[in-house]
Amino acid sequence: MRYRGAIDDQPSPSSEVATPYLQQAIAQLLKQEPIQTLEASAVGCSIKWRS
Q1: Domain-located, residue 51
Q2: In total, how many domains does the chain have?
Q3: CB count, 10 Å around CB of 6?
Q4: Is the entire prediction scored with pTM above 0.90?
Q5: Do the domain assignments include residue 19?
Q6: Looking at the domain assignment, is residue 46 inside a domain?
Q7: What pLDDT shows up at residue 41?
């Protein structure tokens, strides 16, 4: 996993997104660049991992 967290910096659907974290991470990954934001706090339910 190369990025973990919020899709963007808005907790609800909004046109006021200033930082699209996931979109930036995918673009950097495809360009084989270092991912600038590796983790961003997400609001809501967490992802549960199986052991």
Answers
A1: no
A2: 1
A3: 19
A4: no
A5: yes
A6: no
A7: 86
Q: Is the residue at 13 inside a domain?
A: yes
At which residue do the structure tokens 């609001």 appear?
Answer: 43
Domain extent at residue 32: 4-40
Q: What is the pLDDT of residues 11-35, one digit of tens each?
A: 887 778 899 999 999 999 999 999 9
3-state secondary structure the chain: CCCEECCCCCCCCCCCCCCCHHHHHHHHHHCCCCCCCCEECCCCCCCCCCC
- Residue 34, pLDDT score: 95
Cα(13)–Cα(42) distance, rounded to whole angstroms?
13
Centre a 10 Å sphere on the Cβ of residue 24 and count the other Cβ atoms it contains.
15
